Amino acid sequence: MTGDLAAHPGLAGGPVYLDYNATTPVDPRVAEAMAPHLRDLFGNPSSSHLYSAAPRMALAAARGQVAALIGARPHEIVFTASGSEADLLAVRGAAIASGRPRPHVITQVTEHPAVLQTCHALERLHGARVTMLPVDGEGLVDPAALDAALTDPSRCGCGRKTPRPPPSPPSWPPTRALAGSTTRAWPPVRPNGW
119: domain range? Predict the structure, then answer.
């Protein structure tokens, strides 16, 4: 670690922990900030009883802090209980919000099970068309395969790695639509004329 941050107490003296994709130790400063809400301010912020007021204000303050940190508006911030819940919300929400009777979802075979299971549920429950793209030995999607999968009704895609840029940019969606290292859903990436 650098600076004045010490190793997390739960990791001191133990083996190296490498499963940060699944869960991370809670930073002691976060645990300290959360302690009152876990001990005393436990009310449901969505309720109308007396116990909900303090949690509702704390949630609004946290939403405002996150929004300010990333340049968003507070109402655009959605807190979920887990990464799996966030994956489901993003993929299902984008597919259903497309308004199409048979939305087309594009993902990759190595995607997180939360995404893959959501895609299967969209097929089963909403008649979605799901395209599962293969990956190469480095875990990357071939841009040509993605380009072939992008059809007019394609409304969202899910992937953890940005594919390599193709040799012919005019047939490729803008990089901003694919950038990121986390599961994303995006609006149509093929503007008229592509």
Answer: 83-178
